[in-house]
Amino acid sequence: MSARHQEIRLNGSFPLRFTIVEDLKYPPHWHEHFEVIYIIDGSIKAVIGNNSYEMQKEDILFISPACVHYFEAFGAKGSKVLVIRYSRLFLQNIWIDRKNEAKFFELFERNTVFHRAGTSAAYKPEKRIENIIDEFKSKKGFYREMVKAEMLLLLAGLHINTALISVRRTEGEKNVADLLRINGVFEYIDKNYTGKITLAEAADSVNLSAYYFDRLFKKTTGLSFGKYLTSYRVVKSEWYLANTACNVTEAAFKAGFNSIQTFNRVFMKTHGCTPSQFKAKQ
Fold it and tell me: What is the pTM assigned to this prediction?
């Protein structure tokens, strides 16, 4: 698992997928489809580039294509999250009044989070989402049309009732090209994360100068190479702590950390608990 291009195949005739995830945590990654994250219960931390969001129950996050993002645990309760993925094809035949078209599609072209705390008490977006899931599961006649209708109602209601926070992003097509250009470095990290990896070595793995690679990586992913590498190693250490008999020191070194002090500090910042406390919960 890394920030490489994540390919998810969606049905060509109806390119939409629903997944419910318990305790959502995922390292930096990107993909060419759109994604909606809905917090059913608990809380998570979502990071898109340099922007971080602490999301609570009933918050909704729209993620546009070609944006590197990742999810971390936040709070002691854990989380239950609905993930909706859809391709551009899903949007092509959706009907909307031309007067509101630009405002409507703004949601799909920008990363946007809707906080439940800023929503009218009378408006319940969760009802729309429940209807979407029910229609999708039932597969009854006209279910595709019903799903699209519910998506329209969800988005229109959010525009009317909710405070909107948006984040800056680069143009999608250009970002995809740049991400593909550095994609090889993610494979290089997969194979070499247990040892020392320098910026120069990472740059060389994709045939770029260290100076150009450093700038391109930060511009494209929103993260410095060092920060990404540290995040990747934390995710690996978490796996060792949760799925093996490794103690904290063993997990740290297996994940590529050469300092226990650094590992404990970074892990605490990421998870809100020490590695020992994390392992004790498993």
Answer: 0.67
